[in-house]
Amino acid sequence: EVQLVESGGGLVKPGGSLRLSCAASGFIFSTYSMSWVRQAPGKGLEWVSSISRSSTYIYYADSVKGRFTISRDSAKNSLYLQMSTLRAEDTAVYYCARSLVAPDYTRTYWYFDLWGRGTLVTVSS
Amino acid sequence: EIVLTQSPGTLSLSPGERATLSCRASQTVSSSDLAWYQQKPGQAPRLLIYGASSRATGIPDRFSGSGSGTDFTLTISRLEPEDFAVYYCQQYGSSPWTFGQGTKVEIK
User: What percent of chain A has pLDDT over 90?
Assistant: First the structure.
């Protein structure tokens, strides 16, 4: 089955750190670019960070730049998000999402055709 | 950053009616790099449309997308009970990728 499964969410105090993981299965992980998208309770979707299939290109939203680090391990079919200096406004469900790469590898189409079910991160004292 | 503004905020319609959702961008979206998603409560978003008008795999043909430049539209030709949900547009032509604030389609 083609799927993404996030883990690592939980309750953390302001200023703390957390590492999210996303396990991919059912497709060739190394041929896709990947992203994290979050959704605060009762709010809309917010893109957080993206990484190209070979990790050559990495992008961050201004709201997390310098605090979050995205990475991937194709040998383990996994995507990660290291989050530090967490703030109350980082409280959200964090989704892992997949993006298609053009057949000639000239670009990634950064829409999200496959999503995980999400993992909840709560930042509170 | 490209800001996407969706309208209306809420659309109250009956099953069988036509739904027209708008997404307006603050700048031209390059290459029509615009997608639409559907999200139901407690679920992850689902891709409906990419490239402004291409339906994703398995999406019924009652869903259609149109537009270019700064104005885009998602149309649901005849609402089915399972279509009542929140819909988001997203541009992916230039970083940061951005989403609209969403349109809720509710049962009238």
Answer: 92
